[in-house]
Design a protein that fits this description.
alpha+beta; D-Maltodextrin-Binding Protein, domain 2; Dipeptide-binding Protein, domain 3; 16 helices
Length: 501
């Protein structure tokens, strides 16, 4: 009896001596992220990581409304030329530095001046930003810009530690320091990104896991197998062909949402030497290529009806969609006619795309479709971050890429097609399009803005530097061990309140 009591006491002591096992959330990503610097990055999966690591001045709610995050309130004044924001008190960066108005100013100025920054066009309307108090920031604009708040809900509004930014400069992505619920631990390219719980987070009671590991797995079959084996807890952007299987698995949960972005192909019209090709030089060939594609068939074949066919940066369900430019039906005869007018019966094209399962399947379908019009497409599969680097460098002819979309229509257009746009990889430049999109930024009247976007869409549909294909769903497979996860309409993965059994 005494031996039993002693054994019980020893066991109890052993349990008290060892800490409880920490909860780790393992998330399978479709691609690897590019540089982990909000000023420089552009990948969708990078934004997924930032959502856990880098708080923004404002966030997006489940209702697609702008809500407080690091800024608790804001107000416009002087006819829309001044935006004043109150900054949350008691916030710390992951390096222990205090987040105050001066830190916000330092980040915004870095986004506007860092040579490598891709946020410059997003903040182009800002004349100056200053600390008007210890916890108050004042943006003075060159002219009214109704899109600014929406820009601050994403990478342009992610506040980074001024100390780390100064020390690391353009190499900030090697050890990013933000003020989100999870802090950076390590990154091994093409293998994993690891974050851990930040004990001094301002809303720490909502952090219910200790560690997050992001694993890039482009092959959706492999990703789903890892989920079923327990090596993953969440798999993002699973293949549409796997949806039914996930729904029928008692150990998994399926969830999806159509995002505000688009799927597209980018034609190199003026980005370096490789723009010197028939497709880049003659819009008739780009129009022919577009007409040879059956967008609705792609939705059915590749996405099993879960995607939405489209031909603009906004889905047909959006109030910003130009209804006078309906999604075109496939027209092989007209495509051949346009090719003939341009002086070609056949044309060789290299099309680069990400090496994940769904995009590869989609490109093979398009390759087959356009061949009937005379386009001989050779496919070049590459890792996604590499694909974006090649786009930036102009080392491509035609490139397939997605944009996850923004709450304001400006975020789906301006930086891609204006002459100095931060992500204008095609190097398209049309002063009339610039004028329309710049004017759309200044009007608080949505009806006026709609007229500007409609007019720009007519020009873009004719010049066609970007060939829009449609709007994909963000589909998730989730282990039943995970509780509290809800897909966000902007495609981000918000992990506060998410736990693991």
């Amino acid at each position: 009896m005494k031996i039993a009591s002693l054994t019980s006491a020893l066991l109890a002591g052993a349990f008290l001596a060892f800490p409880a096992m920490s909860a780790e959330l393992r998330i399978g990503l479709n691609d690897d992220a590019d540089v982990l610097d909000p000023a420089q990055s552009r990948t969708f999966v990078g934004r997924l990581v930032y959502t856990a690591m880098c708080d923004k001045l404002v966030d997006i709610s489940q209702e697609m409304k702008i809500v407080p995050q690091l800024a608790t309130e804001w107000a416009w004044s002087e006819g829309g030329n001044v935006l004043t924001m109150k900054i949350r008190d008691g916030v710390k960066f992951h390096d222990g530095e205090v987040l105050d108005a001066a830190a916000v100013v330092a980040t915004i100025e870095r986004n506007m001046t860092l040579p490598e920054s891709r946020r410059k066009s997003e903040l182009a309307s800002v004349a100056k930003v200053e600390a008007s108090g210890p916890l108050e920031v004042k943006f003075t604009l060159k002219s009214p810009d109704v899109t600014l708040l929406a820009q601050l809900s994403d990478r342009a509004g992610m506040i980074v530690s001024p100390k780390a930014a100064k020390e690391l400069g353009a190499n900030f992505g090697s050890k990013p320091v933000c003020a989100g619920p999870f802090k950076f631990v390590e990154r091994i390219q093409q293998d994993r990104i690891v974050l851990e719980k930040f004990a001094d987070y301002w809303d720490k009671d909502k952090i219910l896991v200790d560690k997050i590991t992001y694993l890039p797995i482009p092959d959706t079959t492999v990703k789903l197998a890892n989920l079923r084996s327990g090596d993953l807890d969440i798999a993002e952007r699973i293949s549409a062909s796997d949806a039914e299987s996930v729904k029928n698995d008692p150990n998994l949960t399926y969830a999806d949402v159509i995002g505000p972005g688009y799927m597209a192909m980018y034609a190199n019209v003026a980005n370096g030497e490789r723009a010197d090709n028939p497709l880049g030089k003659d819009k008739r060939l780009r129009q022919a290529f577009s007409l040879a594609i059956d967008r609705e068939a792609i939705s059915q074949i590749v996405y099993e009806g879960t995607a939405m066919a489209g031909n603009q940066p906004f889905p047909p369900s959006s109030p910003w969609f130009n209804k006078d430019l309906a999604v075109p039906a496939r027209d092989i005869e007209k495509a051949k006619q346009l090719m003939k007018e341009a002086g070609y019966e056949t044309l060789d094209i290299e099309l680069q795309h990400a090496n994940n399962t769904t995009q590869t399947q989609m490109m093979q379908v398009i390759q087959s479709m356009v061949a009937e019009a005379g386009f001989n497409v050779s496919l070049k599969a590459t890792e996604f971050a590499t694909l974006l680097s090649e786009q930036t460098a102009g080392n491509y002819q035609l490139s397939r890429s997605d944009w996850s979309g923004r709450i304001d229509p400006d975020g789906n257009l301006h930086q891609f097609v204006t002459c100095k746009g931060g992500i204008n990889d095609v190097k398209y430049c049309n002063p009339e399009v610039d004028k329309l999109l710049d004017e759309a930024r200044t009007s608080p009247d949505d009806a006026v803005r709609k007229e500007k976007y409609d007019a720009a869409s007519v020009i873009l549909a004719d010049d066609m530097p970007i060939i829009y294909l449609g709007h994909q769903p963000y589909a998730y497979a989730i282990s039943n061990k995970v509780e509290g996860f809800e897909p966000s309409p902007d495609g981000m993965m918000r992990l506060l309140g998410v736990s693991k059994k």
